[in-house]
Design brief:
The protein is α+β, with helices and mostly antiparallel strands and about 170 residues long. It has a single domain, classed as 3-Layer(aba) Sandwich (Aminopeptidase). Strands 1, 2, 3, 4, 5, 6, 7, 8 and 9 form a 9-stranded mixed β-sheet that branches. The longest helix has 15 residues. About 35% of the residues are buried.
Length: about 170
């Protein structure tokens, strides 16, 4: 039976291996490690899917902001989401997103931003960020940069640019 819970120190190596295998490179795994060591790390929002002690998948949400003319609005970045290749297609990723978004709501977060597959994330309620006047700080296909209002209407009067911490550029 697959369980979903916040990461423990015992799962860190397994997370690294799953993320590396899922993306076919080390970059995303290194990003997780940098975030984990930062003051922005929210342990409850680093969630693993495990079965019989083996890490099958991982999702991470970390703080970012939307910079408007008047203020900085707190938000979360969903990045990365990974499932071990041999178990992809079984719904593990879907469950990780659902558990993660539920935890984000429980902790009082209101906005989640994702750069991801436009056919995957809308099933969770993500919409093109441009519909809300929210822009990426870099060039990206419009349909791939999405936001989710965890609190309905929170983006109704917001327009601005998403600002990621510098460590997103460092890896």
């Amino acid at each position: 039976m697959i369980s979903f819970a916040s990461e423990t120190v015992h799962e860190i190596t397994g997370i690294r291996e799953v993320v590396k295998a899922a993306f076919g490179q080390i970059t995303e795994a290194e990003l997780i490690e940098v975030i984990r060591k930062s003051q922005n790390f929210i342990p409850e929002l680093s969630i693993v899917a495990t079965e019989d002690g083996k890490v099958l998948g991982h999702i991470l949400f970390s703080p970012i902001v939307i910079e408007t003319r008047e203020r900085m609005i707190p938000a979360l970045a969903l990045a990365p989401l990974a499932v071990i290749p041999e178990r992809q297609g079984e719904g593990i990723g879907r469950q990780l997103v659902q558990v993660g978004l539920s935890k984000c709501r429980e902790l009082g977060h209101e906005i989640v931003v994702v750069l991801g597959h436009p056919d995957y994330y809308p099933r969770f309620g993500f919409k093109k960020a441009s519909q809300f006047g929210v822009e990426a700080p870099f060039s990206v296909p419009d349909e791939a940069f999405m936001v989710l209002e965890l609190k309905p209407g929170v983006l109704s009067d917001v327009s601005g640019i998403v600002r990621y911490p510098a460590y997103f550029d460092a890896v």
